[in-house]
Amino acid sequence: MVDHPDNLLIRYLRARKYDSKAAFIMARDSIKFFHNQGFRDVIQKGELDLIQYPLESGFIYFYGHDLEGNAVLYLAPRFHKPKESPVEKFSKIIMYIMAQGYLLLGDKKVTVVVDLKGLSLSNIEYANVKFASDILANNFPEVLSRVLIFNAPWIFSSIWSVITSFLDPVVKDKVQFCSQEDLQKFIATNQLPVSLDGTNTHEYNYKTPSIEEASTKFQDAEYERLMAERKELAYAFLGKSQEWVDGKSVEDDRDALAQKLSENFRELSPYIWSPSYYHRNGFIQNFDEAYF
After folding, report:
1. Which of 135, 57, 68, 58 is nearest to 105 (CA)?
2. pLDDT digits (tens, 9 = 90+) for 102-145
3. Domain CRAL-TRIO: where (predicted)?
4. CATH topology for 5-207?
5. pLDDT tens for residues 188-221?
6. How many C-alpha atoms does 164 have within 13 Å on its Cβ side?
């Protein structure tokens, strides 16, 4: 679901306690971050440009929602292979996942469910943990609802003491340790997979797509028209925003332009956004409608 532009700005404002200057700096730095990290390339090149084992193994994936309607992101660190995923490659996986989350979330948040079953020291790479924590706190503000950690082995206490030394406070405050049974306090049994004592029979089953399945549309004359339309709509939206700031009653006109921007995004997305596992399996339709 494509969100209203205001809701994105509100996330930054909330993250900085409604300090407009601090929120502006945070938003500016996020834009720089995504540009420097090649976010546009990540969504355009898609899954075939990523290391495959995190996708194939079920290391990290979205499925279903919690009791508050937030999307659930499952994470199984036992599948992590640090030697195959240095930060520069791991970062692309995280950005890819969060990009899909952007389409799935709308104005909702994400609950991360971390199953530490089978974890060993060979699965731990602190630089990757820090990257994931930092990107959530600094570049996807007010997106994280909670992190539920369960099945922690005895070795995790020493691992956790290291992680907490650099974990962003925003993320740290949302971490909750629980038992597998406690998950049902946050996620309905019909949303939890059978493997976690739920009743949902869905099984994550990623298959590497063909080039055709993962390709964006050729950027033809229609693409150029949509890009020109988007530029025109963006300027019009900014103009109405200025009128609104000046005290004019233009809320309806402004919201109508926001809706047109959303519709434009839906039409433009196949040209710039590589279809993902979530598109191929019907979880994301029309690039702005989520179905779990």
Report:
1. 68
2. 877 777 899 999 999 999 999 999 999 999 999 988 998 989 99
3. 47-204
4. Phosphatidylinositol Transfer Protein Sec14p (3.40.525)
5. 999 999 989 899 998 899 999 999 999 999 999 9
6. 10
Provide the whole-model pTM.
0.90
**Whole-number Å distance between alpha carbons of 13 and 19:** 6
Alpha helices in 73-181 (DSSP H): 87-105, 126-139, 156-166, 169-172
CA distances from 133 to 23, 31, 39, 118 (A): 19, 18, 17, 22
**What is residue 7's predicted lDDT score, i.e. its pLDDT?**
87
Share the mean pLDDT of the chain.
91
Spatial separation of the C-alpha atoms in residues 176 and 66, rounded to whole Å: 15
CA distance 170 to 154: 26
What residues contact residue 11 under an 8 Å CB cut-off, 6+ apart? 141, 142, 143
Residue 3 has pLDDT above 90, yes or no: no
Place of tokens 């047109």: 260
CA distance 284 to 291: 6
Q: What is the pLDDT of residue 101?
A: 85
Buried (b) or exposed (e) across 100-132, using 16+ Cβ within 10 A? bbbbbbbebbbbbbbbbeebeeebbbeebbbbb
Residue 284: its H or E element: strand 284-285
